[in-house]
Task: inverse folding
């Protein structure tokens, strides 16, 4: 098995830029995916294949990858962006997914 | 639109059994693999199991292998998770999710709470 590591929490003021990282050896061979989860709700996909954005997700969400670390960036954070962000990738075979521990984003 | 609705959760005694269901609508169910993912209280997401679109291939997380069984009925657009011999550490909200080949888990159901307690 393998692991993905995220910071437990990130705090930013409204309008600032939030960056959430996710690290793991698997990320050199597999894409990363990001999900946003508000309290009591189901996760929602916000970034796929490292840097692709699903339709309906605001342009302020973006993703990048460098070596064993991927980063999700929210430019111009809004109050509605609060919640937990989970990164996800897969093992070398692409069969078994794994999640990071999640990062709680607080908008001050 | 795509909708996934879980049911069958509740309180279950350790060692007893419980079956979760996930009813799908809004997409050709038989064309997609399906997953179960869980989230223990205050914790992160943990993948549980996946079943192929035909139902003939299944994979499980080590934490549930040999105890849980995933299945599906394409004629009913429904997938299931049979939880046998549950343990206290299986207490979690269980989400059903559609597998998208490009996007992995998209979308998710609203989740159903399972509490394992005597």
Result:
């Amino acid at each position: 098995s393998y692991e993905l590591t995220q910071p437990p929490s990130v705090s930013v003021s409204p309008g600032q830029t939030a960056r959430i990282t996710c690290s793991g050896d698997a990320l050199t061979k597999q894409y990363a995916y990001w999900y946003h989860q508000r309290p009591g709700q189901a996760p929602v996909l916000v970034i796929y294949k490292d840097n692709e954005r699903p339709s309906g997700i605001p342009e302020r969400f973006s993703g990048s990858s460098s070596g064993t670390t991927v980063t999700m960036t929210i430019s111009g954070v809004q109050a509605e962006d609060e919640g937990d962000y989970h990164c996800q990738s897969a093992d070398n075979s692409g069969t078994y997914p794994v999640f990071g521990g999640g990062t709680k984003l607080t908008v001050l | 639109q795509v909708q996934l609705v879980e049911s069958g959760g509740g309180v279950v005694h350790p060692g007893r059994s419980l079956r979760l269901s996930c009813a799908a609508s809004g997409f050709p169910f038989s064309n997609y693999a399906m997953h179960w993912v869980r989230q223990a209280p205050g914790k992160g997401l943990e993948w549980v199991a996946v079943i192929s679109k035909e139902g003939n291939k299944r994979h499980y997380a080590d934490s549930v292998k040999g105890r849980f069984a995933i299945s599906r009925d394409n004629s009913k657009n429904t997938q299931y998770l049979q939880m046998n011999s549950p343990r206290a550490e299986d207490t979690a909200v269980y989400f059903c999710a559609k597998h998208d080949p490009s996007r992995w888990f998209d979308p998710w159901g609203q989740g159903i709470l399972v509490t394992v307690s005597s």
Remarks:
- Residues 79 and 107 of chain A are 6 Å apart (CA to CA).
- The longest strand of chain A covers residues 83-90.
- Chain A has no helices and nine strands.
